[in-house]
Amino acid sequence: MKVVNAFISIFSIFVFLTMGSFLMIVSFHLISQEEVLRAVTEVYAEPLRSLQTALIGVLFIVIGLTFSKIFLKNTKGEDAIVFQGENGTITVTAKAIDDVVRKVIRKFSAVKEIKIKTVIQDRSLSLKIKLVVWSGVLIPEIIQEVQLEVKQRLGRMLGLSERIEIQVDIAKVILSKEPKAEVA
Question: 50, 74, 98 — which closes off a domain?
Fold first, then answer.
């Protein structure tokens, strides 16, 4: 939904800028009325000119969409959860949440590598965790334990246990010479 709203906002900005520029050009008489009518008449009269105008229009749309995509790519979701405490505002950043999740997962000796993507929207939290694990572990069991530990820790820390969604994916299983014992 945010993407649609952002697209509508960007499109509206382009429309208003275009209309505003056109009205300024007309009001300051930078182009005469006859020149505008002549140009429009040429576009309608000559098929080649119509095609050329259409291609320029498509080019402007593509450039606008490209800028929109770049703009949307650079604007992430919220970067922090903000609470209103008794003594003022409390902010917990996505980086701090990532650090807590890493500390919780490092306790599992079966996990070799961790990648975390944190998305914060309003006061809800969504985590996508990718793990590389050593062979010899029960994957469903390790996923369930990681989800439970992370949810409990973040729930205590942030007070939003019902608004925490945790997806754990096993990206790779690495062969080990000896099976590792699980530490929880």
Answer: 74
What pTM was computed for the model? 0.55
Mean per-residue pLDDT of the chain: 83
| Backbone phi, psi, residue 111, to 5° | -95, 125
pLDDT of residue 32: 84
Q: How many domains does the chain have?
A: 2
Q: From 39, 81, 70, 37, select the one nearest 56 (Cα to Cα).
A: 39
List C-alpha distances in Å: 103 to 5, 17, 81.
36, 49, 19
Whether residues 92 and 115 fall in one domain: yes
Q: Within a domain: residue 183?
A: no
By CB atoms closer than 10 A (0-12, 13-18, 19+), residue 176 is middle
Domain region containing 135: 80-174
Task: Report long-range pairs for 56-63 (Cβ below 8 Å, ≥24 apart).
Answer: none
Helix (H, G, I), strand (E, B) or coil at 47: helix
The residue ranges of DSSP E strands in the chain, in sequence order, are 80-85, 88-93, 111-121, 124-134, 164-174
* Residue pLDDT, tens place only, 124-152: 889 999 999 999 889 999 999 999 999 99
